[in-house]
Amino acid sequence: MSSSFSTSPESLASSPGSTLLRVPTDNGSNKIRSLRWGILGCGRVSHDFCLAVHSAFGIRDASAPADDKTAPPVIVACASASSASSASSFASRHSIPRSYGSYSALLADPDVDVVYVGTVHRTRLRDATAVISAGKHLVLEKPFALNYEDAVAIVAKAREAGVFCMEGMWTRFFPVLRHVAENVLSDGEEGLGGIVQITSDFHFNTEDSEKYPDSPLYSFKLAGGAAMYVAPYPLHVATMLLGRTPLAISAVGRVDTGTGVDLQASVSLAYPALVPDENKKNDERPRPNVGPLASLHYGFLTESGETTSILCERGRITINGPSHCPTSVTVERKLPGRGEKETKTTNFPLPVQCGAVAEGDGETMEYFYPNSAGFAYEAAAVCRHIAAGKLEAPECPLDDTLAVMKILDEVRKQIGMDIPKEAEI
Amino acid sequence: MSSSFSTSPESLASSPGSTLLRVPTDNGSNKIRSLRWGILGCGRVSHDFCLAVHSAFGIRDASAPADDKTAPPVIVACASASSASSASSFASRHSIPRSYGSYSALLADPDVDVVYVGTVHRTRLRDATAVISAGKHLVLEKPFALNYEDAVAIVAKAREAGVFCMEGMWTRFFPVLRHVAENVLSDGEEGLGGIVQITSDFHFNTEDSEKYPDSPLYSFKLAGGAAMYVAPYPLHVATMLLGRTPLAISAVGRVDTGTGVDLQASVSLAYPALVPDENKKNDERPRPNVGPLASLHYGFLTESGETTSILCERGRITINGPSHCPTSVTVERKLPGRGEKETKTTNFPLPVQCGAVAEGDGETMEYFYPNSAGFAYEAAAVCRHIAAGKLEAPECPLDDTLAVMKILDEVRKQIGMDIPKEAEI
């Protein structure tokens, strides 16, 4: 089976986001072997992950020595716990050399360095523990765990074992988010001042693809519900921009009386002040008792604009929809006078378009989810960090993941949702 | 002093919103005297109100018999409690025949039918009581009162006296809002289904026009604060669309440690189900334990997009900014397939542009606030309703005003703001 690629990695260098795809050498060593990935779970998200990595970096022979400049990802194995044949079919479709009918078999493969876990939610703790115990590095697709307690256990195990560990919160690796965090907000270059309020939303309409009540999205026992499927996106944005410890968490929400899963919520968060009072001109501006606020909402029952808006003292940053996998940002800098402003939109095109990879038989593979080509940003970052000997990704630290899980528990508690416990289901 | 008008009332008939400006006859009577307005308070909001009414309907002689088709508004008197000369100057600038140096003098004028109260917040209860006691109809600019208790007292007095009474929540009279309430949402013609979630925001940046801490916006004793100045807008939208009695109110906010006024809040509301369960196909869709949610935020410290978004089961209605005085609405009807939709934007141009009225000396008067020409919608509706013998405006019922005041008290309580009491300040 042969595959063709419409875009070479080199051609990406001209796009604004391309620098994030470069995988640097490890401190002058000139014989970096490519990071070799195993994939747990052969479902939709694993499909999109593999397609994105292969589209961006090509399909290469894991045993061949890499050049001395880059250590891009290479996918060497996949496993499905339910059937060897579905793993084999997935491997063939994605040009992955090996496939296994059980997770333990893949974890025993000495040629696997890092495992991407794209399995169903229900077994997050079990799967993560197995990966860490096998001494492999770990990228655990979101949600990181079913609840805060399980998340703490996973993080503790990973830190004890000394393996790289990360929640697969791919949004944080999109160039738009890096641009906002590293350029727009960092040094006040744009003159926007401190953050006053952020909003972020993510609703999608399950009617398009999920049948009620059979879909896993609606299954309490499979850890369905909006807190598991969509809430991590707006909550990670808030955590990334405003910190890990909100002073107040306040939520209302809707729980399905038929299945017991949460369907929708509106969450308000108040954060500590970002700037110490002594830096402000206290006599000229108000001195609020708390810092910035976040207004977040998410759910299953409709489709939203999916926008993240960062309102600053003297301007506004809009991460244009779909903001969970964004390709453009608009910065409006306030000028004197109500409503007066200067506007700049910056685009960060995806590295490869959907459906860019053709199968051997000439058919084009497509992504299941919007902008999944952006998985390549995350995969490249993991390669860089592991090559550099890091155990966490600075773009998505484990303490941020724990903070999000803690808020999610509190939100579910406030809206009257029973929080699933992996040990009990 | 002569005045000229760039737009005649007749020319408005061709704009989509123009029907709202027509003032019908009173059940066949053919000698309707124009409704004669008195204005309490000669500040910015009164300036904008008078300019809008005169721009849309012209300046006419109140004693002359009106024609048999319309009874448009006519402004006959204004009063300033602080100085007779400022009232006189306001009257001269606005071609208002009479002016008074005290509110009681205006209320004693037998030629005043209805009083528009555009005074400072502090004396809402006192001013409303005086108007009602004088037997005049009442339009009380928002906020209706400093707290729920005072609002209940005003409504009780008005109902007992049998006078027309209304909060001047002009947003509700804009053609965009009427179009949404009466056409888009009423009969499912657009196939949008029930409301799932609404969002509405209103932040403006006080740095442009208000000095800290001297501005009334920041004065606790003058009933400043965001709940009084900006919160009524998003809260009225939620109340209009989702009802008067949320099941849950949940808020976080920022209070100024210097002045004690509230600066900003994020409010989540959960409402009862809009559609009875028996009308739903219970086996095919989730059955949430509560109805739609609202995510609202507002404040003084930044400028927001000021958008109202109504997410429905199969589509989305965006009241484009500035949504507290909107001139356009975008309806996106969902088509099969994630992200597929049909989009329609409808514009409702303002009746008269800002600055359309020229003073006698050739200078052009300008509005203080955005889209203030839209005050004409409210004024025309009040004329229609009073001519028809109604004591409330169906577009803005008093029970809705009470509902908003009740939520505002609860929000301020939750964010730790002391609620001002008129009797004590």
From TrEMBL, chains A, B:
The keyword Oxidoreductase applies. GO terms for molecular function: D-xylose 1-dehydrogenase (NADP+) activity; nucleotide binding. Residues 35-168 form the Gfo/Idh/MocA-like oxidoreductase N-terminal domain. Residues 191-316 form the GFO/IDH/MocA-like oxidoreductase domain. Residues 1-18 have a biased composition (Polar residues). It comes from the Eukaryota. Pfam families: GFO_IDH_MocA, GFO_IDH_MocA_C3. Residues 1-25 are annotated as: Disordered. Keywords: Oxidoreductase. Transmembrane segments: none annotated. Its EC number is 1.1.1.179. It catalyses: D-xylose + NADP(+) = D-xylono-1,5-lactone + NADPH + H(+). Belongs to the Gfo/Idh/MocA family. This is D-xylose 1-dehydrogenase (NADP(+), D-xylono-1,5-lactone-forming). It comes from Corethron hystrix.
